[in-house]
Model the fold of this input.
Amino acid sequence: HLESRQLFKIVFEHSPCAITVTDSEECIVAWNPMAEKMLGMHKADLFNKHVSTLYPPQEWKRMRSLNIRHRGMLSNIATKVICKDGSLLDISASISVVKNGKGKVIGSIGILNDVTHEKLVEHQMRESENKLRIILDNSAAAITMTDEKEQIVSWNSFTQKLLGMSAQDLLYRPVSS
Done:
């Protein structure tokens, strides 16, 4: 069976997430291959660098304001990191503070997930929704959407004009009446 040290090494080396480990001074002392790949960096770019150098200044300031050292752990922090080529990468970060037996902070572990694809999809969906809204609002036909109870939950502006009703009159109005 695998020893816990071997198991840790396997998880660390093969994680699909970037993992960084800092010391008590917040300098990077360890990282996994995915961190190098995600950031486009190598040992000289990462070893003993202050972790703040990975973040744009305003993002680092915001990260500091979250008071993670006091909280002990914070997950799913939407932020950005700076890659070696200077580009910014949208990430979701989870930071855990590491303490010794006496409760003194001796470092932290950061798990970084690249969410660029999710952000792009979210942006494309918003654009599609905006286009659809423009088409619906400029349509010369009354268009309504109903819920499972056949009550009106959404409509275009022509519906209000045609029926001479306000938003309050239309919302949750049964289509049968």
The longest strand covers residues 88-99.
